[in-house]
Every structure is written in C-alpha cells, then in structure tokens.
Write a structure and sequence with these properties.
Layout: H1 3-40, E1 44-48, E2 52-55, E3 64-74, E4 94-105, E5 120-121, E6 131-139, E7 142-149, E8 160-162, E9 170-178, E10 184-186, H2 189-198, E11 207-208, E12 211-220, E13 225-234, E14 239-243
C-alpha cells in the first residue's frame, strides 16, 4: 500500500472512531437524562396513622367516631438511597393527586350492592369539608347550626398536592366507626352528604359489618401511579388497618 493510500485509510479510521465516540457520548447523555427523569417522578408511600377519635361539633347529641386513616407521602430521593440524591436531584411535586379506594371481601368478591361496589374517590382529611354552615336564630339567644352539603366543594377534597420532603405527608380517610357500635363504614364525601340530608354521617350503602376486608388504595397523579393493599379488620374490640406484604 502506498503512503498516500495509508494516509487515507488512517483518516477514515480516525473519522470512524470519532463518530463512534460521539455516538457513545450522545447515547450516554440520553440514558442519564432519562434516568434522571425517572428518578424525579413522584414515588408514594402509605403508612397507617394511629386511630383518631373525632367528635362532631354540630348540633347535639355529639357523637365520638374512630377514624382509620393513612399518611401518604411523596418520598424524597434520599430516602430511596439513590445515587442521584447525592447530586441534589429531587422528586417532582405530585399535583392533582387523588386516591381511589376499592373494598373487597377476603375471597375477592364484592362487599357492597351495586352500584355502591364501584371504586370511590378517597377524601384527603386536611382539605375543606364539602359543607356550608348556616346559623339559624331560634330566639331566646339560642341558635341552630345547620350544615348544608355543598357539591361544588367535593373536588376540593379529592385532589391533593404532595410535596416531597422529610415529614411532608397528607392524611387520607379510609373508614370510620362510631364508638360502642360494631359496624364501620367507608368514610368519604358521601358521609357529609348523608349528614346534611339526614343528620346521620354513616354511609349505610357502604357499611362494613364485623369481619375482615381487602382495601386497595390507588394513589394517582399526572406523573405516577402506585397501588397499596391493606387488610381492614373491624369487630367488637378491634378496628384497624394492616398493610399486606406483596
């Protein structure tokens, strides 16, 4: 091979090698970019909050109710022990996050009659109640506190913003039971509608008789979706949620 031909061959080899290095760098950059975007997507957790006793503050008689709720979080990157956490990569805030609850018996069959056996939107405890309070004077200095159901406020308590960070979490209502009563019931915005209509906050269409149930909680935002499974147990001396290990 002549010196000229050898020079041409070396130039082609160098050009080809440079192209391969450029292509490899481009692919690596794209891989890292996609990996960072995956890491930034919200990652949810759901743990059981200790039972909370609340008292309805409207008209007597006041009724003590035990609530089962979950603490739902958008986990920060560092808690997942991911290498990107060392470089200041953070989760995206989960906007318009909703929870979809499905209740089943332990054998997977429906618990409630149609159409009430369909999945239901969960209620975020820290958001406004779908009620408007009307104070009616009765004379002699007495008043009546009348709750009115306001359906325009329903969506306000069904969509939450989950910010990532240590200690950042939001409470999600699952079920409730009146003290000294064996039956529990699903707690949602429907309870407020019942209370405004009848004065009874129990959702009788979604009553949980003493026993054990499967509860699927789907946490869903624009970027992410995760499913958590729990066992709900209710009875004379027990009312609790237990996570089910997958």
């Amino acid at each position: 091979m002549s010196g000229y031909a050898c020079l041409i061959s070396n130039e082609w080899f160098s050009a080809g090698l440079g192209f391969l290095f450029t292509l490899a760098a481009l692919l690596l950059t794209l891989h890292v970019a996609f990996a960072i975007e995956r890491v930034k997507r919200p990652v949810f957790s759901a743990i059981v909050e200790p039972n909370k006793i609340s008292t309805w503050a409207f008209n007597p008689p006041r009724i003590d109710t035990v609530h089962l709720r979950l603490l739902v979080s958008n986990e920060p990157v560092l808690q997942t022990n991911h290498i990107f956490g060392r470089f200041g990569i953070t989760r995206n805030t989960a906007y318009h996050t909703r929870a979809i609850l499905t209740f089943r018996s332990l054998n997977g069959s429906h618990v409630f009659e149609e159409p009430y056996d369909a999945p239901i939107f969960g209620r975020w405890s820290g958001l406004p109640e779908p009620l408007t309070r009307m104070i009616i004077p009765l004379g002699n200095g007495k008043v009546k506190d009348l709750p009115l159901f306001d359906p325009t406020k329903m969506s306000l308590s069904e969509y939450q913003v989950l910010t990532p960070g240590e200690g950042e979490s939001e409470l999600l209502d699952i079920a409730a039971r009146r003290m000294e009563e064996p039956d529990a019931y699903v707690w949602s915005n429907n309870c407020y509608a019942e209370f405004a209509r009848t004065g009874d906050s129990r959702d009788h269409n979604r009553t949980l008789r003493p026993g054990a149930y499967l509860v699927e909680i789907k946490i869903q935002s624009g970027e992410a979706q995760q499913v958590f499974n729990f066992r709900l147990i209710t009875g004379e001396d027990v009312f609790k949620l237990e996570p089910i290990d997958e």
